[in-house]
Amino acid sequence: MTQGKSDTSWNAVHYDERMGFVSRLGKGLVDMLNQQAGERILDLGRGTGDLMYEISLLGADCVGLDSSETMLEKARRKYPGLRFFHADGHTFRLPEEVPFDAVFSNAALHWMNRPEEAVVSIGKCLRSGDV
After folding, report:
1. What phi and psi, each to the nearest 5 degrees, are found at residue 66?
2. How far, in Å, CA of 65 to CA of 94, rounded?
């Protein structure tokens, strides 16, 4: 999620080439997620999609969300079979009727400077009782 930066300040090519360690180091979080096949997972602050792709390989139905259209364009090119939405992490509401089983995020929440709003948005997209 790129709330602290304007969309034009994110360079998706630079991110993948020079910041790829963010996704590599985040792979341990994918293991901690311990999702089961068929679960619906929202990847909040998706960037260029690498960890979301890893989650999808384990059988989860993944949806990615990011506030940077530049990053999402790159993610869509890299992973055309996955779904991505452009939205603000503080106030997002997805056009999904089925709630999510979990919300995954790596190196994105620190960009959200209104955490109370982000928590409300996350809570609204989860199955009842999962908050």
Report:
1. -150, 155
2. 9
Tokens 């989650």 -> residue: 55
Tallying the residues shown for the chain, one arrives at 131
Which pLDDT belongs to residue 85? 94
Q: pLDDT, tens digit, for every residue of 29-83?
A: 888 888 899 999 999 988 889 999 999 999 999 999 999 898 899 999 999 999 9
3-state secondary structure at position 18? helix
Give the tokens for residue 86.
């452009």
**Distance set, CA 8 to CA 3, 73, 127 (Å):** 12, 13, 34
Q: Report the relative pairing of strands 102-104 and 83-86 from DSSP bridges.
A: unpaired
